[in-house]
Amino acid sequence: MSQEKDARRYLIPGLERGLIILMELARSHREMSFAELAERMDFPKATAYRAVQTLEYMGFVRRHPTTGLYSLGVNVLRLGFEYVASLDLVQAGQPVIESLRDKTQCSSHIAIRDGQDVIYVARVSAANATINQVSVGTRLPAHRTSLGRMLLSGLSRSEFEAVYPDGELPDTKPGAPANREALWELVQEDGRRGYVIGESFFQFGISSVVYPVFNGQGDIEGVVSILVPVHEIPAEDREPLRAHVEEAAASISGMLGYRGGRAARQAT
């Protein structure tokens, strides 16, 4: 028996179908009619209808009372926010990034890595912020962001290749590393430096200062960053901003049990 067949033998079909519907609604970023949902599902309409009705009954799907269109329900959001709130990183870091925002007058964030994505798990906005703001739960490609580079710097070579099994990266938009090897060299430099100052790396006109947050085992648990609404950080501001972010990251790391001495990583 193949590994895939062996894994699927224990799946619960109804649960699998319900989760597929939720993922489809999440990907669409809009309300959808049942006809649209059913068209995208690879199972009978009657089965799709029962799954949607079950999800609606449990509050994971919401049906608009006027249009009849379906969207994600409040219980999906509640699950997500309760998960984020349960992270020690967020609990420890929220007051720290609020203080960081006050000191730097810049929007401040905490992010973690999920596969090839960066996920923002906490944020506070600067007063009168005019640039586009990310929200908790926003995902961005790790290889194209300063935050992602810092998160990837904690991986060994084998772990890195498990995240990016192909030589080519998911996309190579202007400014992005050309391929996996270029990204590996970049994150190695970031790791040796210990922080990233990204100037218009992901989006022109926006700079960032990023530091890693370590857990009690000395591994990178997440990152702390500030968003600076300039193409290039003025020389006189660079060192003070860097020092503030470094202090914030060290504070959170200490609360997570980190006592110095980053865990050794193997290059193989």
From TrEMBL:
GO molecular function, one term: DNA-binding transcription factor activity
SMART domains: HTH_ICLR
Keywords carried by this UniProt record: DNA-binding, Transcription, Transcription regulation
Alphabetized CDD domains for the sequence: HTH_ARSR
Gene Ontology BP annotations: negative regulation of DNA-templated transcription
InterPro entries documented for this protein: ArsR-like_HTH, GAF-like_dom_sf, HTH_MetabolicPath_Reg, Tscrpt_reg_IclR_C, Tscrpt_reg_IclR_N, WH-like_DNA-bd_sf, WH_DNA-bd_sf
Top-level lineage group: Bacteria
HTH iclR-type domain residues: 12-74
A Pfam short name: HTH_IclR
Residue stretches making up the IclR-ED domain: 75-258
Official protein name in the record: IclR family transcriptional regulator
